[in-house]
Amino acid sequence: MIAKFMKEYAGWYLLYLLMGIGFLGMFALYHLPFDFILQSLFFTGSLLAIWTVWLFFRFQRKQLMLEEALYEEILDAFHLPSDLAYLQLLAQEKAVAKQEILAYKSRENEWQALIKIWSHQMKVPLAALSLMSQTNQLNQTDVNHQLLRLDNYMANLLNYMKLSNQASDFRFEKVEVKDVIIALVKKYRSQFLQKEMTVEVVGTWQIKSDRKWLSFALSQVIDNAIKYSPNSGTVTIHLDNGVTISDQGIGILPEDIPRLFEEGFTGYNGREHQKASGFGLYLTKRVLTQLGLMIQITSQIDQGTQVRIWQEK
């Protein structure tokens, strides 16, 4: 502690020593009596010793407070302008650290909720595949359907991780959206066939975008159109300065529509039919926003849902 004290106040003691030597030199130069200077040095030295003791104990108290992080007591002990500036900086750093901890905990809770939902969803197709295997009823269409569900759930998790970590690898190029749509229709062919649904693709639309991420966003919309449509229904995809995907499904409650893009929101349909995780449309909205695209959903109960995606000019 003494070494720290001397390191901080060494300049003041060096100044006192130099001043004393200077006065001795002047007295010697002018042949003045040394009794006066010695008495002065003794008097000022005594004051310096008393001041040093007081200053040392004050310095020691500050150091102990800092080492023990007694923040409330520091506020009373530190009153110099430099001390107050230091405390203000500490308070700012403390507030920032607190916000970061709260954000981290919030993110951790979101991850736990996501993993819980995701693991529950993964169990369903895995259980279906296990049952097919045990009963020797491995129908190719049903197997493909369950594998597609597993692939979609895995893609959702991986893309959620990428977007959360700001690690998205966007590469913009000219994209013919109709080609992306046709590829997705082929991907979901087994689901269309299983529900005996028809799909119509009309028109063309070319934009500059990222093909992979655009495909992911559109796949979420098409998957929902199939999921909530009745057997023998029709999904219509119209391309004209945008893409509109319409289904003849169960529709969405009016009060649920404003919250569809919130993270983890499932709405009445998702809870009632136990098919939604609440992350599909949330990810879709985030991806489309980063691609510079807009999305709007309109729906009527028992009449269907229309999802329009377009690029603002």
From TrEMBL:
Pfam families in the cross-refs: HATPase_c
The EC number(s) this enzyme carries: 2.7.13.3
Locations listed in the record: Cell membrane
Stretches that traverse the bilayer: 12-30, 36-57
UniProt KW keywords: Cell membrane, Kinase, Membrane, Transferase, Transmembrane, Transmembrane helix, Two-component regulatory system
Top-rank taxon, per record: Bacteria
UniProt-recorded name of the protein: histidine kinase
Topology term for the membrane: Multi-pass membrane protein
Primary location recorded for the protein, binned into one broad class: membrane
Species of provenance: Streptococcus cuniculi
Keyword Transport attached: no
Classification lineage: Bacteria, Bacillati, Bacillota, Bacilli, Lactobacillales
First-level EC class: transferase
Domain (Histidine kinase) ranges: 117-313
Gene Ontology CC entries for this record: plasma membrane
Catalyzed chemical reaction(s): ATP + protein L-histidine = ADP + protein N-phospho-L-histidine
Alphabetical list of SMART domains matching this protein: HATPase_c (SM00387)
Molecular function GO terms recorded: phosphoprotein phosphatase activity; phosphorelay sensor kinase activity
Single GO biological process annotation from the record: cellular response to phosphate starvation
